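Structure record:
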Amino acid sequence: MARESFFEESTAQSRIKAKIVRDYFWAWARVIVSAQKKWKKGERIAYIDLFAGPGRYKDGTKSTPLLILETAIADPEMCERLVTIFNDVDPANAEILTKEINDIPGIRSLKYRPQIQAEQVGEKIVQMFEKQNLIPTFFFVDPWGYKGLSLGLINSVVKNWGCDCIFFFNYNRINMGLHNEAVEQHIDVLFGEERAATLREMLAGLPPEERETAIVEALVEALKELGAQYVLPFRFRDEKGSRTSHYLIFATKHPLGYRIMKEIMAKYSSEEHQGVASFEYCPASQIHPMLFEFVRPLDDLEGMLVRDFAGRTLTVTEIYDLHNVDKPYTMKNYKAVLIKMDEENVIETDPPSTERRKGTFGDKVKVTFPPDKNKGGVHERK
């Protein structure tokens, strides 16, 4: 499939991808603007898309650039603050996108006119971002394959305050490219040369599922080493649901951004097990639902909480912040488990359930877990 055909038609996966990006942009923008007002940290925010495409798929469906701009136009405050940069290496795409943007109703209400470029994404752009102290920026990187996508590019943006990144990770092409000498350089800049070499050795003989896990974990580790402490992958399966096609990978330095994106990705997951989102979108699951109660992740969460917080007293917010990273659970899942544990007298709460509205569990409620019976004292979480 050539790059030229990438925008031939929209798919369920592409529409979900665009919604995730749009929803996070809106939530991120509100948080950043609130912080700017409180701490007087400036009056501008930015959205940068380096692989923007023509703005619409051939069937007329709007892609991310138009959705982002429409979201901003609908809010007077965003109109005054938002700076946008859209780039596509194909001049024809950039020209079409320019026309599409100019045709958006209300586009002139934006204080800062959208900037549209047709540049090759590579080391030159990385160096430019590295030298700049960026204003708060939501950075979307959506290459078709892997050319132009690098750890250096991602880090050049997320290094700054208020800057988050979400990027398209084409698992199929990267999986094939790992052992292709012709594209070795592109793979090395994505994972880091040393990690890429280690990964190639590790993958030899691994079955497909273990291979996929190893590749994604290597990328997550690389991002965390750069300082993006909170990383969330969202998997997309093909139309039949038989194999992974690609991922959206979100990277941020702030736990609030992680929490917000986790809620959004959970909402757009096509499956739930006991109310716990799968963090993947599979078109086939909408047509052929399965009996997911055979998998009981909330039961697993209850066991983890008893083990990890044995003998400790913490608020609900503290429990969530300390425990949720790199796990598929949202705050809603934690509260569901804590309500169940409270009803079964597994934990003690302050205030007790008799002083709270039935079925509720506020963020500031204090929870005391039973001691670790095996150790006879407080279990210190590692």
User: Anything to note?
Assistant: The chain has two domains: 3-287, 296-368. The two ends are 47 Å apart (CA to CA). The chain is about 45% helix and 15% strand.
